[in-house]
């Protein structure tokens, strides 16, 4: 059993006494250096002796001498710990297949660690450079030659080339610590040199801004006093010089807050033009540019602020005179009340001379009342545009056409027909011919047939069909009297043979036979084809879904 020699008691719990006056509890130092070698010792335990601390070991190592009085050996990792030499330089990188640059300069920082003679190469990172930057070479001993030699700090100097792995680094300068260390070792440094500039980076730098003496005009006051105030001019844009050009009405807005101009085209109903919102978006318009910019066309060269000598101002807008903006001529013929008041207050020397304009041309339309007295049927006729026979002369013949269209509106005569053709593929094709009594127009619809390979549907849009042999000056169009069962109708070099008709066709022709002089041959052919119980039989089977039912309102 162990015995506590200080008090003669066994080392059991309760028999040991602790020194209450002790305030420091250092951990004993076990790692020391001896003759340049790392040694591991054991801490002294018991006997009241304290283990030597790290400070005591360093102090003893510094004071220890050999028999001839020389200092003991200290390793480099202890003498040069955390001591680094720093050199600044760059290397030149070739650039292939680029029309903008042939080579570029990349700056680097070379670190030399004295404790183990290792080196690393770092490149400062540039934001949005598009190149991998940062650590180019990790920390290790750089080879100097193929024989296995490595670079030493004695081989480094300023204004020299350092070749590492085929890349030549140019050392330009170093930091003050490196300069002090090299000079303390007896090495004379060369004169530092500036880092070469990259031509591509230099070309992308923005030019230096030159200070321009500000004018006495207060833009902030203009914003506070003129915000929301706009001068409005009524003008005519003279575009008669271009192909199919004419004069158009426009609105010119001049914003007093920033001297910008906006041009809006006045939209006319049923003009047939695309409703563009702006003819010229809001911008400052240059009045006079430098002489060097005049030979260049404006569509190629955009004039910048530095090249403009003067912009348009309210003094340039004079009612009653012609104004040229961006190569377009505008005649200012009037303005609104606010614009007149503004010129009276701020520019009384400018006289506003409104110009009277010609009256608007007469409208080419008139509303025609229904002669039958039905208020639900009202049509807007464009005289001269519906058919060649109509005119605005107001004659009885011209008045008869609108009355006929209003009376016979939505009345359609339908016939079944086949195509008279020598082509074997046209056999079995069935058509429905619709005759519109309102305007004597004809439309043709082809009924679908399974596995025929022919796209069915609308064969001919609703149009008036002239008879063969009629002239352009005196055309003769098809009428219901020409549509007899078995007759041939030629439509734009396509021959159709009528095979059947609706019962409504026979009823309608019998009711108007005396008035319109329908031939008896046409009526007899319809009576023979339309047997009792067979009305609408063949037509309903080939019915066109896009055409209205005969005699029924749409």
UniProtKB/TrEMBL annotation:
Ranges for region Disordered: 535-554
GO molecular function: alpha-tubulin binding
GO terms classed as biological process: cilium-dependent cell motility; mitotic cytokinesis; mitotic spindle organization
Any single Gene Ontology cellular-component annotation: axoneme
Subcellular location(s) per record: Cytoplasm, Cytoskeleton, Cilium axoneme
UniProt-listed Pfam families: DM10_dom
Main localization, broad class: cytoplasm
Chain coiled-coil ranges: none
Alphabetized UniProt keyword annotations: Cell projection, Cytoplasm, Cytoskeleton, Repeat
Record domain DM10: where: 81-186, 227-347, 409-513
PANTHER family: EF-HAND DOMAIN C-TERMINAL CONTAINING PROTEIN, EF-HAND DOMAIN-CONTAINING PROTEIN 1
Name this protein carries in UniProt: DM10 domain-containing protein
Lineage of the species this protein comes from: Eukaryota, Metazoa, Chordata, Craniata, Vertebrata
């Amino acid at each position: 059993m162990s015995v506590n020699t200080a008090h003669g008691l066994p080392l059991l719990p309760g028999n040991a006494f602790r020194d209450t006056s002790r305030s420091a509890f250092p951990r004993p130092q076990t790692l020391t250096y001896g003759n340049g070698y790392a040694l591991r010792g054991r801490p002294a335990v018991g006997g009241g002796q304290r283990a030597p601390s790290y400070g005591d070991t360093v102090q003893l190592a510094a004071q220890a001498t050999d028999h001839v009085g020389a200092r003991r050996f200290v390793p480099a990792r202890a003498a040069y710990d955390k001591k680094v030499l720093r050199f600044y330089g760059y290397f030149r990188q070739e650039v292939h297949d680029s029309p903008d640059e042939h080579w570029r300069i990349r700056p680097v920082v070379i670190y030399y660690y004295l404790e183990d003679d290792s080196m690393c190469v770092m490149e400062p990172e540039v934001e949005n450079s598009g190149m991998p930057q940062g650590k180019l070479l990790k920390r290790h001993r750089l080879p100097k030659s193929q024989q296995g030699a490595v670079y030493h700090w004695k081989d480094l100097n300023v204004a020299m080339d350092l070749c590492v792995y085929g890349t030549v680094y140019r050392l330009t300068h170093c930091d003050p610590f490196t300069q002090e260390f090299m000079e303390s070792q007896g090495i004379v440094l060369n004169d530092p040199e500036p880092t070469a500039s990259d031509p591509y980076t230099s070309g992308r730098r923005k030019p230096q801004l030159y200070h321009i003496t500000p004018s006495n005009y207060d833009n902030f006051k203009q914003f506070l006093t003129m915000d929301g105030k706009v001068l409005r001019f009524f003008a005519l844009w003279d575009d008669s010089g271009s192909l199919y050009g004419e004069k158009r009405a426009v609105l010119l807005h001049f914003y007093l807050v920033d001297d910008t101009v906006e041009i809006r085209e006045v939209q006319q109903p049923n003009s047939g033009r695309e409703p563009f919102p702006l003819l010229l978006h809001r911008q400052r318009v240059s009045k006079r540019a430098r002489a060097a910019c005049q030979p260049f066309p404006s569509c190629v060269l955009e004039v910048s602020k530095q090249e403009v000598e003067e912009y348009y101002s309210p003094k340039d807008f004079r009612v009653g005179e012609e104004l040229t903006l961006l190569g377009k001529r505008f005649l200012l013929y009037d303005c609104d009340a606010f614009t007149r008041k503004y010129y009276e207050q701020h520019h009384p020397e400018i006289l506003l001379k409104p110009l009277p304009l010609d009256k608007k041309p007469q409208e080419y339309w008139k509303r025609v009342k229904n002669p039958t007295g039905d208020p639900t049927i009202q049509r807007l006729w464009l005289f001269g545009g519906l058919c060649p026979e109509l005119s605005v002369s107001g004659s009885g013949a011209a008045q008869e056409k609108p009355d006929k269209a209003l009376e016979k509106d939505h009345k359609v005569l339908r016939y079944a027909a086949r195509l008279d053709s020598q082509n074997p593929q046209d056999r079995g094709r069935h058509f429905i011919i619709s005759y519109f009594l309102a305007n004597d127009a004809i439309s043709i619809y082809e009924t679908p047939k399974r596995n025929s390979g022919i796209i069915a549907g609308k064969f001919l849009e609703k149009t008036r069909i002239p008879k063969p042999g009629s002239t352009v000056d005196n055309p003769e169009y098809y009428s219901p009297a020409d549509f007899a069962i078995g007759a041939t109708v030629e439509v734009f070099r396509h021959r159709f043979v009528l095979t059947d008709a609706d019962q409504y066709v026979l009823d309608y022709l019998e009711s108007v036979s005396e008035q319109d002089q329908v031939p008896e041959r046409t009526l007899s052919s319809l009576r023979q084809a339309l047997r009792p119980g067979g009305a609408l039989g063949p037509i309903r089977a080939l019915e066109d879904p896009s055409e209205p039912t005969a005699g029924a309102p749409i």
